Amino acid sequence: MIDVQTKMAERALELLCLPEGQPCYLLDIGCGSGLSGDHLSESGHYWVGIDISSSMLDAALDRDTEGDLLLGDMGQGLPFKPGSFDGCISISAVQWLCNANKKTQIPAKRLYCFFTTLYSVLVRGARAILQLYPENSEQLELITTQATKAGFTGGVVVDYPNSARAKKFYLCLFSGPSTSLPKGLTENQDAEQATESAFTHQRLPHRTSRRAMVRKSREWVLEKKARRQRQGKEVRPNTQYTGRKRRPRF
Q1: Domain-by-domain residue ranges, the chain?
Q2: For 183-234, how does the pLDDT look when each residue is reduced to its tens digit (9 = 90+)?
Q3: Tens of pLDDT along 61-74?
Q4: Can you give the pTM of this predicted structure?
Q5: What is residue 214's DSSP assignment?
Q6: Strands 168-174, 153-159: parallel, antiparallel or unpaired by DSSP?
Q7: Half-sphere exposure of 199 (CA within 13 A, CB side)
Q8: Could you give the CA distance from residue 212 to residue 208 in angstroms, rounded to a whole number?
Q9: Which residues neighbour 120 within 8 Å (Cβ) at sequence distance 6 or greater?
Q10: Are 124 and 175 in contact (CB under 8 A)?
Q11: Taken in order 191, 44, 245, 55, is the CA torsion positive or negative?
């Protein structure tokens, strides 16, 4: 599940088409325990996550995620100032707005409230990439219709359309002038990317080393400080006491 979540976050970030080498301020809707946010941090971006589940946000705090976390229901709107974010991603969350847990909840109204506030909090010209699992074509049409009413342009990008298990839907929304829609991945493209990835080995050693580190150890602390320094954050200089456990006080 962690690998699948990370790959979908990587694909969503790729579809955002952000400027290379420039940190951006991103919104992660339905952030959960912060798995997709971890990839945003590793890519050098700052982010804010919102989720309706307090237990999932507690798990994100326990994992010491880099982003800021907010408890909220996206169906009631996003409580941020207009033009706050350079982009938005969401992994496996938006389709839940199509379900009514109460008699007072109307999916179409909740979707419209979500998309209108999302359009507002994005800077003009920014993108929102929402990965989702629609139950049927009617549900997908309901989502895209409300997004269009809110002012978005764009469409749906389908990766691996001929695969039952690997098929993924990405709703690509543009808050500015309409641009060409990215192309979906196919099995042939995936094979080429896997070959190139196996040859370069650029990200695999770093990710494997992070998972192998003991939490709160000296290596873990040094790696976290180095990552924050790459992001331009103020970091205290390393000393012989960095990462050393303190003795208990009586």
Answers
A1: 1-175
A2: 899 876 554 443 333 333 444 444 445 556 677 788 878 887 877 776 666 7
A3: 998 899 999 999 99
A4: 0.75
A5: P
A6: antiparallel
A7: 6
A8: 6
A9: 78, 82, 83
A10: yes
A11: negative
